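Example record used in the benchmark description.
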Amino acid sequence: MPETIRNPILPGFNPDPSIVRVGGDYYIATSTFEWFPGVQIHHSRDLAHWRLLTRPLRRASQLNMLGDPDSCGVWAPCLSYDAGLFYLVYTDVKRYGRPSMGVAAGASLRDFHNYVVTSETIDGEWSDPVYLNSSGFDPSLFHDEDGRKHLVNMLWDHRPGRNRFAGIVLQEYSPQGRCLIGERRLIFEGTSLGLTEGPHLYKRGGFYYLLTAEGGTGFGHAVTLARSRHIEGPYELAPNSPILTARDRPDAVLQRAGHADLVDTERGDTYMVHLCGRPLPNRGRCTLGRETSIQKMTWTEDGWLTTADGTGAPSLDVAAPHLEQHPFAPPPVRSEFDSPELPIEFQWLRSPWPDELFSLTARPGYLRLFGKETPGSPFRQSLVARRQQAHCFSASAALEFEPSHFQHAAGLIYYYNSSKFHYLFVSRDEAQGKYVAVMSSNPDMALPDVVSTLYPVPTGAKLTLRVEIDHERLYFAFQAGEGRWLRIPNLLDASMVSDEAGPPGPNFTGAFIGVCCQDLAGGAHPADVDWFEYRERPYLVDPFAASPEN
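Model output (structure tokens):
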């Protein structure tokens, strides 16, 4: 039995965690934004070891994110369980505003659509969604002791001069009518930290407890707690609020702590899961995005909640519950694509119709990518990727691709969003013939979409493409057939594939590494990926060696 739990418990997996216990099983749901399928659910039996179990929003009738802006799509799912049924509520963000004009100038009108789906089994088929409202985001469903159900979400106020984050609203939900009923009530206007969001309701000792996130999802993030004898309030703020934050602790390893949820173990211990970020020590940027951590919590004699050590700071190591240790086998380092189903580690962008983008049966044993739109498109990209989960890693892919002209490209991509990526790609030029090059879309640079030197490669040769990342340092290399490795000499900045790098607008997702294919002539010219490897490293021994290790 482990004595401590090491944070983050879900490294590299996106934030806004919601946790529920059913018997001896624990499940965490987290945001997936524009990546399909929607919502990630991890499973544990000891709160220390976790496995990615399922992504429930996988049909077009449940989720269609074509055209959703970067870092929009699925926000802040809330997972709950009542009377033999799992409930999942989530937001599909369709419009964030006009980031190019800045938040104050152009981001007041937004479209947040909130839904609920249900399932009798956590990893089975979930229902088609029931529409709830569009008044704000971060919906959460509370199941009261009397059988009634209530939805809480933050309220968005677009009017000029108003507080955009106008507080937390409450409305009853009728499972029979499959709709919200009764009057919508504003129950909590937030504190001076502002940006009040991420609400969850609980009932304990005759009090309704309201947990919220405040201070924004950056380095000022925090968790606040309030309570009331009545579900509609008024709510009294906890005397030690915020009850968790790193906003005044610049040296803390876990930064951006906030957006939390609570769970009680079988023994009655209380734990809090929350999002956090681990900045690169040299750059202060979080290439792993917003991750999920856990903290041991303690109830005081007067009914308030504190961290176990009383500091209110996120701890890197926390006391483990007295539960039998239950580790899971790690996912394989290499994906061979021998199954007709995509390995669960991988996702794609926005589209509920993956057959348009890729196939695992068109050429058995290969992932076939059908060339689609550019890496900047918010519609149909043929891009299949998995999350970066460590600051140091290597990834490689074996690619068979014969471009016919300059509008065909395919390769290995380190991707954050449509304006932040490094791309090692194969294409064709009239003078050079088939070649390998690097394209970087870097908002830190005056001239984005910079293409490196073209490196000719022989027609018909299988190419192995590789990336090595050591914190903020990135380099690419490739191998043609059984030939020697050739490193692209450009040392690239991996830190710009992060939340904190520009441009303005939502930056929430964290970095992905994967493969993609473009056919800008519209012919769906294919590329075949034989295998893909992702290997974490403690550090990069010699990033400037003449040849990367094979």
